[in-house]
Amino acid sequence: MITLTTAEMNTWIAALLWPLTRILGLVASAPLFGNTSVPVRVKVALGVMLAAIVAPTIPAAPAADPISWAGLLILVQELLIGLAMGFAMRIVFAAIEMAGEVSSMTMGLGFATFFDPLSQGRSSAVSQFLALTATMAFLAVNAHLVLLEALVESFYTLPISATPISAGAPYEMARWGAKIFSAGLQLSLPIVAALLITNIALGILTRAAPQLNLFGIGFPITLGVGLLVISLMMPYLAGPIQNLFNQGIEASRLIPRTASERTPPTAAPRP
């Protein structure tokens, strides 16, 4: 007759529950996986399948009762690690969406907004277009598989432990969040520069011929120039977007490494 003790049952449950929590955290926050159009059952099934594959191969989990305070703290810590890894990749898409927002406002399409199911808010038409383009590129370069590979590697760089994570992980997330503004401005810079030249030309034209109706001809010209620049820059967006994906993957891998360090990060020197 096979007999199982409570300690053995708790060990088996914890060996699957804690990796599942980190995986579900990434699935909930990462782009494409965390999209609201994906049913919750599909997300949970994907997480359980990955946990069943990964759990037997990762280092042994600490011997702690999952229902105890120590087990709950480990559960929360694993959830935060998964959310942070997925959020690091989500920042890349936020930068691309910001580039679309800046471009649409410069073109005069700020009023053309749509409901974005990913952010649960409203975004402009250009932002939606660039986000869909980035999603197709995300699938084309298999970045979703590389992100899952980085998640599996995190169980070795930062094994499941009852020891609290280092304070360097939040610092790294805050530093990486600045990428939204820098990358978004860089991606939208061609459109902004072209429209700035267009507005200067319209201003000179209005001074030369005051009888022209600037409001009547300005909007169609700026809109046409903006769409023309977008069509011209689309073939050249593959390189910058893929570079952003690589940086997002590296940031996802860096978060567990930073969290495994037990010394706080040194402050950056002031210029």
Automatic annotation (TrEMBL):
The UniProt entry's GO biological process terms, in alphabetical order, are: bacterial-type flagellum assembly; protein targeting
The signal sequence is none
**Name of the protein described by the UniProt record:** Flagellar biosynthetic protein FliR
- Can you say where in the cell this protein is located? Cell membrane; Bacterial flagellum basal body
Which organism does this sequence originate in? Massilia cavernae
Q: Keywords in UniProt for this one?
A: Bacterial flagellum, Cell membrane, Cell projection, Cilium, Flagellum, Membrane, Transmembrane, Transmembrane helix
Question: Per the UniProt record, which residue ranges are transmembrane?
Answer: 12-32, 44-61, 67-88, 129-148, 180-202, 214-238
Q: What is its main location?
A: membrane
